[in-house]
Specification:
Elements: E1 2-5, E2 8-11, H1 22-26, E3 29-37, E4 40-41, H2 44-57, H3 69-79, E5 89-96, E6 113-120, H4 126-131, E7 133-137, H5 158-169, E8 174-178, E9 184-187, E10 191-196, E11 199-203, H6 213-224, E12 229-232, H7 236-240, E13 244-249, E14 253-260, E15 263-264, H8 272-284
Helix pairs in contact: 6-8
This protein binds pyridoxal-5'-phosphate.
Pyridoxal-5'-phosphate binds next to helix 6 and strand 13.
Amino acid sequence: MLIYLNDRFVKEDEAVVSVFDHGFLYGDGVYETIRSYGNRIFMRDQHLARLRRSADAIGLTIPIPEHRWPALLHEAMTRNDLGDERTDAYLRITISRGAGGIGLDPALCQTPTLVIMTKPLTPPSPQTYRNGVSLIVAKTRRNLPSALDPQIKATNFLNNILAKREAIAAGAFDSILLNWESHLTECTISNLFFVRTGRLCTPALSCGLLDGITRDIVLSLAREARIPIDEGHFGIEAIHKADECFITNTSMEVMPVTIVDGHPVGVGTPGPLTQQLHRDFVANRAKFLEP
Ligand code: PLP
């Protein structure tokens, strides 16, 4: 695997970052995960815009000009024989504050570190979509937005990792995190939706969750299909009483959830609205790809 590190492609074993990098020392950095379908990148400009917003929010200068991204991402794919008719690509861009003396002052670091990694994107198996996945509600709460804004995709992911550890310990696929007011937010790497009496419900951004790109697409597809939407503040009981549940992110698209806290969601199989929205997503996907 060839990795883009700062200004060139290097072999995996040469892709090494300093122990003084503030990304390593303090989690001071931002990242974005992107995917392709074949050679076309999904929602490229939206992902790059979110990367820019994350970087701006922490006062980090992205070390390459905006216009270079598309060619660089494609070069990362082609150099690794990915992003073609055989293999979709997963791309991760990481930008950290860079190497500097020990201390929190970002001015200690002269140059940000930039990394682009790619690997084949392996989607969940058809069986996983057929069966759905299980979630628990974690004891770990989602970060308070006024403490760490969830819109910043930061390389400090401990909040989510602690919740993921709880899911693993419980034998579940993932965790739902509640916020400081015990309202539902999202899962560790995905947004949360559920269906109650024909209405599509999802926690509002003001609950403290990432404005997911797939979440946004699903909401517009639901609007087009005239499905009533409740974007609001929901307690844990709302998810326990749901008829259907699903989670969304760039690599899973729309994944049915059939068990929450050990109990079946609805009848315990992927629900009709979940399946309709996933079908609509797949049918409309070409609109969201590069030309
Ligand atoms: N929420 C969190 C915490 C995430 O890390 C992600 C994915 O990166 C998402 C939601 C889903 O976002 P997207 O649909 O933009 O991939």
